[in-house]
Known about the structure:
- The structure is a single chain.
- By secondary structure, the chain is mainly α.
- The chain folds into 2 domains: 1-113 and 714-745, no CATH class; 128-178 and 189-582, no CATH class.
- 58% of the residues lie in helices and 5% in strands.
- The chain has helices at 3-11, 33-42, 77-89, 98-103, 118-123, 136-143, 145-174, 183-189, 213-219, 226-255, 263-274, 290-326, 331-335, 337-371, 376-404, 433-470, 477-486, 495-511, 520-542, 556-579, 582-592, 608-612, 651-681, 687-713, and strands at 15-20, 25-31, 54-57, 195-196, 207-208, 411-412, 415-416, 418-419, 423-424, 613-617, 635-639.
Amino acid sequence: MFRPQKHFLEEKGFRYKVRKDGKKVFFGIQADSRIFTSYHMLLKKTKGPVPSSSHTGAHSAAGKQTGQATTQDIPDITTRIRIVDFMLNRKTAAGDTFHDLMKRGIFETRFPLHKEDKVLEKEWARWTEMFCKQRIGKIRDYFGEKVALYFAWLGWYTYMLVPAAVVGLIVFLSGFSLFSASQISKEICEADNIFMCPRGDYSGRYQRLSDTCTFAKLTHLFDNEGTVVFAIFMALWATVFLEFWKRQRARVVQKWQLFEWDEDQEEVAVGLVSCLDYEDYELPLHRHSYWRSTVILVLTLLMICLMIGMAHALVVCRVLASAFFSSSSLPFLVEQVTTAVVVTGAVVHYVTIVIMTKVNRIVALKLCSWEEPRTFSEHESKFTIKFFTLQFFAHFSSLIYIAFILGRINGHPGKSVRLAGLWKLEECHLSGCMMDLFVQMAIIMGLKQTLSNCVEYLKPWLSHKWRSRWGSVSEDPELGHWQRNYLLNPVNPFSLFDEFMEMMIQYGFTTIFVAAFPLAPLLALFSNLVQIRLDAIKMLKLQRRLVPRKANDIGTWLQLLETIGVLAVIANGMVIAFTSEFIPRTVYKYRYGPCREAHATVDCLTGYINHSLSVFYTKDFQYPVKIKDSENVTECRYRDYRNSQDYNFSEQFWVLLAIRLAFLILFEHVALCIKLVAAWFVPDVPQSVKNKVLQDKYKVLDDKYRMPQEKLNGGPRQQCGMGLGPRTPANFTPTSSTIPKKTEV
């Protein structure tokens, strides 16, 4: 009975116990103590107790289902779980892995067992602890270094968001001082005799500029002089955040004695000790194929083109929505066509993101499998780069269109660029393109932070309730414990990856277009406070225990954060230069406005609105009879810099373009120089950590050198001063004396 399962476990060298609950059969497995002894000897572990065995509970149903579990009666349990999991993944003599047996229905799953950790439950995985410090050390002891570093990084990111959120809120609120006092807002609100050209050539109506008074005031909340200062501040903030995180990470891993940990050495050591016959061990070597790399590159570019095509599809959707709302019988929709189109486009974009996230994951996994990475860590790194690249274009392509393309390729009234020769391309809001970008950012980020968090928590909670409803728990304590863990939601090797990816996208929204949405850091701060506890509750109470993984940094994610920081400088510079009205306002002040003359007694922006709107004569419309209220209107205005004679670009347009480009170059160089200076000024590793590592190296070499010298000289040698303080004798404890004979897990 259960011969395939037993044969597999025996071939792996496991001892096991069997428990039945009527429907399923649970296998508890125990590894030989020599495996853990060899592991510690290979990695020269001389501190702390060394484990002797690992006992893992597993699940099966009449030889059909199985899973792994562990109890927590000994220290350093994460190492034992990781080694046992690695052993299960290795191929047998017949070439089968555990995953192969799962496909054939012999096993169902495997998982480590949770234990009741009152400290984590009371001081970490509770909503009431939202504003309390995390117990990173306890998280590491329970979930391993990889998970602990994720929560350490997330906590540090949330902490550093506080100054960014405060400054962003101040910049936003400072706009209220200009809400009614701004000269531009006053001119717009008093412009009853200025008519704006209709949205379409063949239909629509002339709208008074004063009708946009409220939107003009709202625009100045986030499009003012403080925007430039805030964008530079966020460029500096992104650099300081990363540099201080590197220092924080160095302190943490040095405390864990993993500062110089070698991942390749760890992989080889685990592979050696998990192989029962040393001669059968095959070292996984690095592989590279130019043909495979070329195919993967081409396929990735095709997917990026698909993402850009999706952005164009959103443009078509917005154009059709504009035509639909313009012909609507509802007066409100007709008057607020642009706002309705922006909201509709944002919602459609969010739905597209949700769908394409699933598609991008499948594609990225396929591309990684073709690349044949050497280890799981290498596989995860390659998968991270590919998946993030696709996700970046899925999330930000529409925002790039709104920020830098929307309204700039439309032509002019009387000669508009049309989609398929029928529908006129959409235009920016009458108050400017910054309003469109702000609304798009607010809706997408708001939906992602609210709906995504709700789904992320409710889905595993409801799933767990459903599984618990149909599952039974035995009165036998051991079997009941295994069953309760089995009824928890399953996890996959990329469960932690999903959490990191979500934070990377949020970080992109927080920094890349922050000039158009100063409230992004504040929204991210509130979201992260919830995210930390949500992830804690989910990992500790709703999901099976993750297989612990060792790490001494966050890996590829750090390079992605640095890349996002550079993109943020470029994007914010372009937003201020080409999307915001900052450059036109500044140029008008000192070149065209009243302040170009000395001793001006009026506001420097007096007359800016009339100066920034071009004139179009209604007689040049091809079908003027279809425009409502056109009898008494001989000219209308539109946002552009064109001549009123031939509607070509005016001299002012080219002057502004040159100044925009000069500002962009200057802004990016200043911001990047500030980033470089900040990165140089703040060392990645604190001096205290460097000194501690140096002292540890000295102690190891000193102990190795002291013994032969004492034998040669007939006594202890004299101490040499090296500026490292008094020498502490090495504490060598024979490894074998600390190894218990047998420990059950």
